[in-house]
Amino acid sequence: MVIDTHIHPALFAPICQDAEQFRRRCDQMNYHKMKPSDLDLLKKQYALAGMVRAVLLPEDCSAETGVPAISNDDIALLVAQDPGFYIGMASVDPRRPDAEEELDRAFSKLGLAGLAVNTARLQIYPNDPRLLRLYDICRERRKPIFFHAGLCLERNALAKYAHPMEFEEIALRYPELNLCLTHFGWPWVQETAALLLKYPNLYANTALMNFDGPYQLFEKVFRQDMGRYWLDHNLAGQVMFGSDSPRIRPVRSKRGLDSIELLPETREAIYWRNAARFFSLEGLC
C-alpha cells in the first residue's frame, strides 16, 4: 500500500482543455514535450505502484504570471473525480492582495487539505510576513503545509529561497503544524536530516528526480549522503513517499526505493503510515 505525497497534475486531461493555458502552464513549470493524460490511464499506472491515495499539488504565482499554473479550482475539480483517492492541496501567491481570502476559500469552500508553498518560485523567504499570515490560517484550521525545499527545476526559481535551513524558524514557530520539506531538500540532504532529527513536526518526502534513475539516486541519497541506518534508526517516522510525477512515474520511484535495504516497518512507514498520520487520514492512521 502506497500514498504518493507528491504529484503535480499539470498533465491531467480534465484541466487541460484550454490549449493556451496548457501551453503557458508547461512553459512556467518547465514541462516540455508532454501531452495531457487521461485519468483512467493514470489510475492504471498508479495501480502498478500499489497506490491507494495521491496528493495533488497546485501552483500559484499569479502575482507574476496573471493566472495560477494550477489553480485551487483545478485541484478541487480533480479531487471531485475520485475524492476517496485524491487529496488536494491549496496554493496561494502571498503577493496577491486577496491571498488570505483565497486560502480561506480553498479550505472552507473547496475543502482542500493543506497549503503548498514554493518559495524558490515565489523568490521570497519562508519567514516573509506575507507568508506568515497564511501559516496562521493553517494553524487556526489545523492544516498541514508542504514546502518545496532545495533545487527547483522550474523557470525563474532560485534555490537560495528554499534552502532547508530557511525553514527551521517556521518549524520552531509552528510546532503544532505538520510541515513537509519536499524533495528531501536536495542537494542539502544532511541539513534536511538534521532538521528532522530536531523537530518532530517536520517531515520530508522522497520526491527526488535529479541525476541518474531512481535506483542510482536513492542509493546515493539514502546510503551515501546519509548514514546507512539513519532512516531505520532515526527518521523512520518522518519520511513519506513522493514520486514527483509527472517527471517520474510513481512505479519507477517505488521500485527505486524498493531496492534500498530497509526494515519492513520502516518501509511500511515511508510508503503510507507516515502520510496517513501527516494528513490524519481516518481508517489508515
How is the secondary structure organized here?
Elements: E1 2-7, H1 19-29, H2 39-48, E2 51-56, H3 62-65, H4 72-81, E3 86-88, H5 99-108, E4 115-117, H6 119-122, H7 129-141, E5 145-147, H8 168-173, E6 179-181, H9 189-198, E7 202-205, H10 214-225, H11 230-235, E8 239-240, H12 250-258, H13 264-278
Parallel strand pairs: 1-2, 2-3, 4-5, 5-6, 6-7, 7-8
Task: Give a quick summary of the entry.
GO terms for molecular function: carboxy-lyase activity; hydrolase activity. With 285 residues, the protein is an alpha/beta fold. The protein is built from 13 helices and eight strands.
Describe, in plain words, how this protein is organized in 3D:
The protein has 285 residues and is an alpha/beta fold. It is 42% helix and 11% strand. The protein is built from 13 helices and 8 strands. It has a 5-stranded parallel sheet with strand order 4-5-6-7-8. The longest helix has 15 residues.
Features:
three-stranded parallel β-sheet, alpha/beta, 13 helices, 285 residues
Task: Write down the overall geometry.
Answer: globular
Backbone structural class: alpha/beta
Low-pLDDT windows of residues: none
Strand content is 5-15%
Secondary-structure element sequence?
EHHEHHEHEHHEHEHEHHEHH
Q: What is the terminal-to-terminal distance?
A: 13 Å
For the largest beta-sheet, the strand count, sense and barrel status come to: 5 strands, parallel
Count of extended strands? 8
Strand order in the sheet with the most strands:
4-5-6-7-8
- Output the radius of gyration: 17 Å
Helical fraction: 40-55%
Number of helical segments with 4 or more residues: 13
Pfam families: Amidohydro_2
InterPro entries: ACMSD, Amidohydro-rel, Metal_Hydrolase
Keywords: Lyase
GO molecular function: carboxy-lyase activity; hydrolase activity
